[in-house]
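Hi L., both proteins are below.
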Amino acid sequence: MPEPHLTAFRVYYEDTDFSGFVYHAGHLRFFERGRTEFLRAAGVTQSALHSGGPGVLFVVSRIEIDYLRPAGMDDLLTIATRVTEARGPMVRMAQEMSREATVLSRAAVTIIAVRDGRPVRLPAEVREAMERLAEG
């Protein structure tokens, strides 16, 4: 299994709710950051794909999250992101959010490449960049 890409960040006051923990929707934002940094590490920027390149956007078509433990203010978190499948317009990714060795949540995410609101094959350069990153 390929090594995941890791993105680290800290939980700020603005990321928490009245309980002092990250609100469940905050996990969505954190996982999005992990996917964006995964692409950036692969040499792919979404703004270039859309405006200066083939006009492709990524949309989430499915996400399933298991919440295991809370994340709190000042926690240093790591998002681990890896591709589990890529074919046609679809990319499936597995993500984990951890604090040190403790997994706080897991996500299974399906994204679709679209142009003008319609699914399109993942551009070859994006697929190749993802494969290079997965191979290390």
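That was the first. Here is the second:
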Amino acid sequence: MSRVGKMPIPVPGGVKIDIKGQDITVTGKRGSLSRTIHPQIAIALDGGHIHVTCSETDKQGSAFQGLTRSLLNNMVVGVDEGFKKVLIVEGIGYRASVAGNGLSLSVGYSNPVVFNLPKGVTGSVENNTKIVLESVDKEALGLAAAKIRAIRKPEPYKGKGIRYEDEHIVRKAGKSGAGK
């Protein structure tokens, strides 16, 4: 049995849970999220907690139980508090700006790259180098942040590129034998 899947999910005040068969809808002050869960998994709302159980006791059933519990917890936290990711643009002349419903990134290409943000993800730019993405859906937020980072990954020699705020780039020495 999954250790993660056995833990109950606390439901904060102001969050409404609606379970209809295998479909679950979570509504809170920041928005609403819905998901269809795997047929092996059963969800029960007991007081102020959600309990996730599995009908099968095999390894795959245990994995589905833990996965479903994590996804439901992310839904509850997302509609109550929301999620945020911060990206840093580093490099001489590199900058970002908000352009309509997306971002315009000048990151060393001949033309600025325009990235349209997916539905449910909002973005803002601070000091032309700090991109702040916010959303209630953790999955969509992480995917959008990864796609923005992939436009110009940080390189190991000067550290130029787009990186996460808490990401550490391991630097390389470069050419040591130049000039001989």
